[in-house]
Amino acid sequence: MEMKSEYSFIGEIENPSIYNITLSQEQLNAVNEIILNDLSRHPAEAILKRKDPATYGQIPYTLLKTSSQNYFLMGWRQRNGNENAFFGRGINCKCVKGAVLLRKADNYIISNEIYAIKIVEEPKNIIVRDKLTHEKEIFKEVYGFGELIHRNNKYYLIMPKMPGILISKLDYAHMSIEELINLLCSIFGALSMLHAKGIFHQDFKIDNLIYDGKSNTTYLIDFEFSAKEPKLQFRYDLSDSVQAATDVINEYAKAHSIPKEECGGVYWNIKKVICQLFDLPLKKMKGVDDPIYKNVRALFENALEPISSRTKSNDPIFNL
Q: Where are the annotated coiled coils located (predicted)?
């Protein structure tokens, strides 16, 4: 199983129809007319064209133009069964999916590059705006792309859309102990990559981690609280990573009907392993053949032995 050593993509390559981001030829013609008129009138201005039934027809998207002269079809909101174009809501924001439009000859077509777009009402507090700017810069540094635009009293943070599923929403019931170990190694592979760049996440939890089982890769998201002050911030990632690993094991144990009291030793083992990893200090793991990766995997295998043995003993193949 491969493990990516670096993140080099900008947008995830997917079929946008998965997210109901589709247009009829008539709708696409209308979008192109809007873009061409916009280019001729405002070639350098970042303009947001909001949904206008008279112009767009029934297109359930917003046409977004960025300062880098890119155009996006942005999922408007969760409505009429179009939930696949909608990630969810935060305290002061919502996040939707968007597909970038590519220039082909004299027209624009929908590409297969899917992005995540965080929409925030114009903050009255300048700190919120500064945090969005900071998050954009971290996304650019970590994943190679991040763009923030301001229009119509809203901020739009355009980010890469990562492949995979939130770790908090994985199907733990069908996860083997080997896959659990792969997941834990992948989580710390992502954190080691971030620390190698001198960045500390500070909100490291399973709701901010996306796991792609095909490549055994974990992606960090939501860099609002991230920082580059290791002496002050190092301890936050340490304590948060202990909690994240504990939450993963809790989900696994619950899905496999392992009593919580039987996991006590595992929690203690995991805490010791993570503290040991942070004492190294945490170094970037380059792949499954990397000695660091092998060492981390061995540590997790030993830490999980109590529930590993129990899981195997309940498997009919071990009781023949």
A: none
- Report how far residue 132's alpha carbon sits from residue 206's, in angstroms, rounded to the nearest whole number: 21
At 166, is the secondary structure helix, strand, or coil?
strand
| Intervals of CATH 1.10.510 along the chain | 165-312
Tens digit of each residue's pLDDT, the chain (320 residues): 333 334 333 445 556 666 667 778 888 888 888 888 776 666 545 444 554 545 555 566 778 887 767 788 887 655 555 555 666 666 677 888 888 888 888 888 888 888 888 988 876 667 778 889 999 999 999 999 899 988 778 888 999 888 888 899 899 999 999 999 999 999 988 888 888 888 889 888 999 999 998 888 999 999 988 888 765 566 778 788 889 999 999 999 999 999 888 888 898 998 888 887 776 555 556 555 667 778 888 888 999 988 887 655 444 333 32
How far from chain centre, in Å, is Cα 202? 15
Distance CA 28, CA 146 (A): 26
Residue type, 39: L
CA 246 to chain centre: 20
Fold held by 165-312: Transferase(Phosphotransferase); domain 1 (1.10.510)
What angle in degrees, to the nearest 10, is found between the helix axes of 291-303 and 177-196? Answer: 130
Whole-prediction pTM = 0.80
Distances (CA, A) of 304 to 178, 267, 296, 311: 10, 9, 12, 10
Tell the CATH topology of 12-160: Phosphorylase Kinase; domain 1 (3.30.200)
Write out the H or E segment, with its range, that includes residue 111: strand 107-121
